[in-house]
Amino acid sequence: MKMSSEWKTLEDVEKNIFECTACPLSETVINKVVRKGSDKPKVLFIGEAPGKNEDETGVPFCGRAGKILDELIDYAGLEDRDWAVINTIKCRPPKNRNPNKKELEACKPFLNRQIELLDPKAIILLGNTAEKAFCPDRKLEWGIPEEINERIVLKLYHPAALIYTRSRIESQNAYIDQNKHLFE
Ligand code: SF4
């Protein structure tokens, strides 16, 4: 694999993702899951790891959690050109377990370069795994933005966590209301 600094475009990154065998998840993956949305987003959502539907289709957030992410995007008033979503790792861990530290580290050059090239105004970490991958030495409060590596970063609930606890959607919407400026 080339050095990530040699990946000049999103297409370079994506080609290297498809060819990657840097961790054992490459042996069980059906489809690598790369990105959905704009290539010049104001807001970049970072999810956790691909699940079953994503593995089968190669599309991020295409199942029930995807519908909840769509609701979040609508609530925030984002147009299609304003947002993109990627995951911390690009291959599904078997049985939907959380990715381990080695897998997160192996996939991090892709995550970092996608962020650099997409160059969003704000990063929304969807859940604790996204936080662990993006800023392993920092613990963020839900809904409280922080500046990390010269970018504004906000941690929200992962949409899958809202499927069975719809009451948390009110909290999530309140976090969005409090941070409207990040979505404008
Ligand atoms: S999860 Fe990332 S590092 Fe591991 S094989 Fe897939 S693309 Fe490569």
TrEMBL record:
<dbReference type="InterPro" id="IPR051536">
    <property type="entry name" value="UDG_Type-4/5"/>
</dbReference>
<dbReference type="GO" id="GO:0051539">
    <property type="term" value="F:4 iron, 4 sulfur cluster binding"/>
</dbReference>
<keyword id="KW-0378">Hydrolase</keyword>
<keyword id="KW-0479">Metal-binding</keyword>
<comment type="similarity">
    <text>Belongs to the uracil-DNA glycosylase (UDG) superfamily. Type 4 (UDGa) family.</text>
</comment>
<keyword id="KW-0408">Iron</keyword>
<dbReference type="InterPro" id="IPR005122">
    <property type="entry name" value="Uracil-DNA_glycosylase-like"/>
</dbReference>
<keyword id="KW-0004">4Fe-4S</keyword>
<protein>
    <recommendedName>
        <fullName>Type-4 uracil-DNA glycosylase</fullName>
        <ecNumber>3.2.2.27</ecNumber>
    </recommendedName>
</protein>
<keyword id="KW-0411">Iron-sulfur</keyword>
<keyword id="KW-0227">DNA damage</keyword>
<dbReference type="GO" id="GO:0046872">
    <property type="term" value="F:metal ion binding"/>
</dbReference>
<dbReference type="InterPro" id="IPR036895">
    <property type="entry name" value="Uracil-DNA_glycosylase-like_sf"/>
</dbReference>
<feature type="domain" description="Uracil-DNA glycosylase-like">
    <location>
        <begin position="34"/>
        <end position="177"/>
    </location>
</feature>
<keyword id="KW-0234">DNA repair</keyword>
<dbReference type="GO" id="GO:0006281">
    <property type="term" value="P:DNA repair"/>
</dbReference>
<dbReference type="InterPro" id="IPR005273">
    <property type="entry name" value="Ura-DNA_glyco_family4"/>
</dbReference>
<dbReference type="Pfam" id="PF03167">
    <property type="entry name" value="UDG"/>
</dbReference>
<dbReference type="GO" id="GO:0004844">
    <property type="term" value="F:uracil DNA N-glycosylase activity"/>
</dbReference>
